[in-house]
Write a structure and sequence with these properties.
The complex is a heterodimer of chains A (609) and B (303). Chain A contains eleven helices and 35 strands. Chain A has an eight-stranded mixed beta sheet with strand order 17-16-18-19-25-24-23-21, with helices on one face. The two termini of chain A are 35 Å apart. Chain B has a six-stranded mixed beta sheet, with helices on both faces. A three-stranded antiparallel beta sheet of chain B has the order 1-3-2, with helices on one face. Chain B has two domains: 234 residues, Rossmann fold; 48 residues, no CATH class. The chains are: A alpha/beta (609), B alpha/beta (303). Chains A and B meet through strand 2 and helix 2 of A and strand 9, strand 10 and helix 8 of B. Strand 2 of chain A pairs parallel with strand 9 of chain B.
Chain lengths: 609, 303
């Protein structure tokens, strides 16, 4: 038992005065009686018949001292160090991100977190409530508020660490909203603190306890990987891998590259503590399959030692060029060895040809049929834009780098002499915005996929820039395949991916570790978000197979160094140890005891026992 | 007309005049009085016959018997003589308690009443005050005219000693033994005291009894002594010895005390009755008048 207000024990100094007062009080009132003879015999009789007479005499004094002691200790606010909730209810948030798989604490951080959560639940007092939230890429409420410890323990048992980054903001926002509904609620965050500061969290006066999980660790992880076609080598694949060492000492390891599980490259390397290194693998054969970069090292976190990329099968692209002849366009199309280009005059054009992509340069038909179209300096009835006039010398204001068509494309210093002035239809997406009119717009509606380029190529310096062939290449990729490139065959773990599952239904996704997910009756496209494990996913549908990969690629997760404090809603919360202790004040009990003693003293005094 | 008294009202005194002090034994008196004397005499109450011995008074020969039996018998009569009545009043400190009347007041009143009874029936009445010894003595007197002197004596009884301003602690045995030795004429002794004496009352009464006194013990107590109305932590100071006794007055103690008092009084009563002595208990709040007229009468002390 400890005391919060130790100086209050000075009140115990009131005991000697009480004893003194008692003895003063015992200087009894003198009373003259004719004779004490009878009193003597009477008291002698009484004493002979009642034991503990001496004790009884001082019973009142004893009770008074006891009362004083109880009061003094009550004011001293004693507390017991008990394992308990700080409030009456707790929102237990368990970080289930990739970093919680680290094995720096045995058997793993997630197991330690679950154990700590189990202890918190086991230490709950009667009437305390708790709920369990799993904070992975997605936030899952494993158990709503309940006092049933068995339910809570089972809920904690269900928590699994995923290969994803933490989306702690969602989990904490949920936890805060749950906590706000309860009185004296406390949010217990069981985490290694490997997440970005959550300063914009609307944290009220909720109590937050951060239970630090994890110790010193050694980890080297792949934090970025990107595969791209190397146009200088006509179709070979270039792979960029970034590795960061989060170990405290220099670490040497071998970076291996596998293609369909066949080792094709291995590079021994040594990284200083905290160093990062980018490694480029060029001239990888462009054959369909999975590229896997792997760090051959036994460190504390395994999930970031591998990263995956999927190379789509190479196939020929039929490109039909209709309208004005353009040297720039032709050159740009020739860069890709897959492209088989042909040319046709507008008068010969008939809708419904074999071409994967049709390029209309300066002319377009009234209505575009099913397929992919690149409209240059022209528009059509069902194009994402409607021509309203012309503008001269539009200035590029901004461009959308996120769209697959704009990948690696910069419109920096692109000058345009004259362009069509257009208004964008609702389904069009502006890729390049001019000061007076949109300049590049992409749109997809039904079976029609269109990229609109609003000016004659010859009337701008774009074709002279390095971005042009990349733009055209991206356009072909997107128009022909819907953006099925190396890049968008890869998702971050936990992110959703749109999958074309065909019209027949019954598609099945087989993930890493042979986990299968039935997509059920979904038809057309289905959103698939069970991508919480890093690795290769294969969608099997009646229309064939589709492969994509999920990667962690997060330096925040790879950095296993446990944070001793986290920033939440502008508040810095220091981490405590795994064992959660709480101070349970017991002054109320003492107050009750003091009251009882008082009542007893009163009774004894008046009954004169 | 009865003389001025120690708080005895004339009506009461008139009633007292009709009473006489009764002796359980027959004591020899000095003058002819209203009491029987052990001496056979000339009164009218026949006692016995006895054979004539030379020198006897011829006047007492029962001639009728002689005529029948031709033997000389003397006719014996109880000689009615005066009785010696001694009133012994305890004037120790413990007698000065009681509200509104002290035990001493009640004792004086009782002594005055009994004395008046004695005087009115032509007995010889003497009085004495005592505490640890006999303090003051009122010599035997006879006749109603001495009543006022008796009352004066009783009025002064209990006046504190001028020199010490204090009265010594009771010593019943010592005082009564002294009285018994100093008193030549046996008679009725009325001891008025609270009998609360650490030395004990047994030896005192025994001393009187062994000197052939007809002893009457009147115990005077205050209601506060019988049923004390006190509470709290007290230090009881003995008024005579100055001894202190610390008590925490509890319900249990009070009932133990009450039981103790009853037992003490009962023991005294039994002690007296077993030895042929009279016993009476007077509370200071009781009416002395009623006590005399009713209880003493019933107890056979007065008739």
């Amino acid at each position: 038992m400890n005391l919060l207000n130790t100086p209050a024990l000075l009140y115990l100094l009131a005991i000697p005065p009480v004893v003194l007062l008692y003895f003063l009080r015992l200087r009894r009132k003198d009373r003259r009686v004719p004779s004490t003879l009878l009193w003597e015999t009477a008291t002698a009789d009484l004493q002979a018949n009642t034991p503990f007479q001496r004790l009884r005499k001082s019973l009142v004094l004893f009770l008074q001292i006891l009362l004083l002691v109880a009061l003094a200790f009550m004011i001293a606010r004693p507390f017991l160090r008990v394992h308990a909730l700080m409030g009456e209810s707790a929102v237990i948030v368990i970080d289930a991100s990739a970093s919680m798989q680290a094995t720096d604490v045995r058997p793993s951080r997630i197991a330690a977190a679950k154990e700590a959560a189990g202890r918190i639940i086991a230490d709950m007092s009667r009437g305390d409530e708790a709920c369990v939230i799993e904070a992975g890429r997605r936030t899952r409420v494993r158990a709503g508020f309940t006092s049933n410890r068995r339910v809570l323990a089972a809920a904690v048992g269900k928590v699994q660490a995923t290969d994803t980054e933490t989306a702690l903001r969602d989990a904490m926002a949920l936890a805060i909203s749950l906590a706000q509904k309860k009185r004296h609620a406390e949010i217990v965050l069981l985490s290694d603190g490997a997440f970005a500061p959550l300063d914009d969290l609307a944290l009220g006066d909720e109590r937050v306890r951060f239970v630090k999980i994890g110790g010193n660790s050694r980890n080297v992880g792949i934090t970025a990987m990107d595969a791209r076609r190397d146009y200088s080598t006509r179709g070979a694949v270039q792979l960029f891998v970034q590795i960061i060492s989060f170990a405290a000492v220099p670490t040497s390891f071998v970076l291996e590259m596998y293609h369909n599980d066949v080792l094709i490259d291995a590079r021994p390397m040594e990284l200083a503590a905290g160093a990062s290194r980018g490694e480029v693998f060029s001239n990888l054969p462009y054959e369909a399959g999975v590229l896997r970069a792997h760090i051959d090292l036994q460190d504390d976190l395994a999930v970031d030692n591998s990263a995956y990329a999927y190379l789509v099968p190479r196939s020929e692209l039929q490109v039909l060029l209709v309208g004005e002849e353009s040297l720039f366009l032709q050159r740009a199309l020739e860069v890709d060895p897959r492209v088989r280009a042909s040319r046709m005059s507008p008068s010969d054009y008939k809708a419904g040809g074999e071409a994967d992509v049709t390029v209309f340069n300066g002319w377009a038909p009234e209505k575009l049929a099913k397929g992919g179209y690149l409209l240059v300096d022209t528009s059509a009835g069902n194009a994402p834009v409607e021509v309203t006039g012309k503008v001269t010398v539009p200035t590029v204001v901004r461009w959308n780098e996120k769209h697959p068509v704009m990948r690696y494309v910069s419109f920096d210093e692109v000058a345009i002499a004259e362009a069509l002035s257009v208004s964008v239809r609702p389904w069009g997406q502006v890729l390049v915005e001019g000061d007076t009119t949109p300049l590049v717009v992409a749109g997809e509606r039904g079976d029609v996929r269109v990229v609109y380029l609003g000016y004659r190529l010859e009337r701008s310096n774009l074709p002279l820039r390095a971005a042009f062939p990349i733009l055209i290449q991206n356009c072909l990729e997107w128009l022909a395949t819907g953006g099925e490139t190396v890049a968008n065959r890869s998702v971050r773990t936990g992110e959703a991916i749109q999958l074309a599952v065909g019209s027949a239904g019954g598609a099945v996704v087989r993930g890493p570790g042979d986990a299968t997910h039935k997509l059920g009756d979904s038809k057309g496209t289905a959103s698939f978000d069970a991508t919480e494990s890093a690795g290769v996913y294969r969608l099997t549908s009646p229309e064939g197979q589709f492969v994509f990969v999920a990667n962690l690629l997060s330096s925040a997760e790879s950095n296993l160094k446990p944070r001793s404090e986290v920033s939440l809603g502008g508040r810095t919360v220091s981490g405590g140890p795994g064992v959660v202790t709480s101070n349970r004040e017991i002054w109320r009990h003492l107050a009750v005891i003091a009251l009882l003693i008082l009542a007893l003293e009163w009774y004894v005094y008046h009954r004169r026992i | 007309m009865p003389p001025a008294s120690v708080g005895l009202d004339p009506d009461f005194m008139r009633k007292l005049e009709r009473l006489t002090v009764v002796a359980r034994r027959i004591f020899p008196g000095q003058l002819k009085g209203e009491k029987r004397s052990p001496r056979r005499g000339t009164s009218v109450e026949f006692a016995d016959f006895r054979t004539y011995a030379p020198g006897d008074d011829f006047r007492r020969v029962d001639w009728n018997v002689y005529a029948r039996l031709e033997r000389l018998f003397l006719k014996m009569f109880h000689e009615e003589e005066d009785l010696h009545l001694y009133l012994l009043l305890d004037v120790s400190e413990s007698m000065r308690f009681g509200e509104p009347e002290t035990k001493l007041d009640a004792g004086r009143k009782l002594a005055a009443a009994l004395g008046y009874v004695g005087l009115a029936s032509l007995d010889r009445v003497g009085a004495a005050t005592f505490s640890n010894r006999v303090l003051g003595q009122f010599r035997l007197v006879r006749g109603r005219r001495h009543a006022s002197r008796l009352f004066q004596f009783l009025n002064r009884a209990g006046d504190r000693d001028a020199r010490t301003g204090d009265t010594p602690a009771t010593d019943l045995p010592e005082a009564l033994r002294e009285f018994a030795i100093r008193t030549r004429h046996r008679g009725v002794v009325v001891v008025i005291s609270d009998f609360l004496d650490p030395h004990g009352y047994q030896a005192a009464i025994q001393a009187l009894l062994s000197c052939h006194f007809d002893v009457n013990a009147i115990q005077v107590l205050t209601p506060d002594e019988v049923r004390p109305a006190i509470a709290g932590d007290l230090r009881l100071v003995d008024s005579e010895t100055g001894e202190t006794r610390e008590v925490t007055v509890t319900g249990a103690l009070l009932s133990a005390y009450r039981a103790r008092v009853e037992k003490y009084c009962d023991e005294l009563k039994q002690f007296c009755i077993q030895r042929g002595a009279g016993y009476g208990r007077l509370l200071t709040t009781d009416s002395v008048e009623e006590f005399v007229l009713r209880y003493l009468r019933r107890g056979g002390m007065v008739a």
